[in-house]
Write a structure and sequence with these properties.
This protein is about 25% helix and about 25% strand. The chain is built from two helices and four strands, in the order ββββαα. It binds zinc ion.
Amino acid sequence: MTSTTASDPVCGMQVDPQTAVAVEHAGHVYHFCESACADTFRDDPGRWIPRDETVEA
Ligand SMILES: [Zn+2]
């Protein structure tokens, strides 16, 4: 019953956290479809992090 999915913030793919590449950044774990996306994220995390709760007016 734990069929949660995660979004790859780089390419937008839905990924399975069980098999995805996990990267921890600023206390949050992000999941990626492949290591290439994870490397892209590590290169510039601020560019890829969804800002759903930190909206600046
Ligand atoms: Zn990806």
